[in-house]
Amino acid sequence: MTVTGSPPQAAAGIRLAALLAYPGLIALALSLERPELRALGLPLLALALVGPRPRHWPGRLLLIASLLIMVVVIQLPALALWPPGLICLAVAGYFAATLRAGSRPLIERIATLVHERQGRQVEPESLPWMRAWTAAWAMLLTLIGTTATILAALDQAGWWLAWITLAAPTLFISALIGEYLLRRRRFPDHEHWPLRRFLALLASIRPEQVAR
């Protein structure tokens, strides 16, 4: 018996497709000189964030709200460019908030979860490293979010599209791989996973798993 795909995998595929379609729709609106088409991107972005069938009411509310806001954005197309920057700034704020006294830095939470899945424990000497990289990610996401928000405020759709689809992912992936390579050099005695497995483990983590 062949299984073509489980519901979670199907939902993940829909979310990924919606995420990729969002900038594609902005590019289409730009090429056709039809800025009102950008409004269709809001439901796509909401779908990418919460999936087609969110289990909790905030997700359902977001999907409904995206449809209602879409009507407004048809008249004010520049608003369709704002969400990615604001989301990045919100995530940057969350990274920074985990640095407060009495809280575990977000990178430490992620590393602990990944290690526990492999039956291992985080090495204590790497904790300062994780705190420093949590701060670094907060700053990087602030840079990405601030730039995207400024371009959206100026309604520079072409530059915004280049930043969101090319520059920002390049910065993000470079930082992710750079941290991995620097960590291997900084802690040569620690056990390190191959890069492909490391990225796969990170991708398997859901936000709610590191919320505490």
Radius of gyration: 19 Å
* Overall average pLDDT: 83
Number of strands: 0
Shape: elongated
End-to-end gap = 40 Å
Helix- and strand-based class?
Answer: mainly alpha
Summarize the biggest pleated sheet: none
Approximately how much helix is present in the residues? Answer: over 70%
Structural domain tally: 2
User: Topology as H/E string?
Assistant: HHHHHHHH
Low-confidence stretches: 1-6
Total helices: the number is: 8
Tell me what portion of residues adopts beta-strand conformation. Answer: under 5%
Describe this structure in words.
The chain is built from eight helices and no strands. The protein has helices spanning 7-32, 41-50, 57-75, 82-97, 106-117, 127-153, 157-186, 195-203. Helix 1 packs antiparallel against helix 2 (41-50), helix 5 crosses helix 6 and helix 6 packs antiparallel against helix 7 (157-186). The chain folds into two domains: 1-75, no CATH class; 81-212, no CATH class. It starts with 6 loop residues before the first helix and ends in a 9-residue tail after the last helix. Helix content is 70%, strand content 0%.
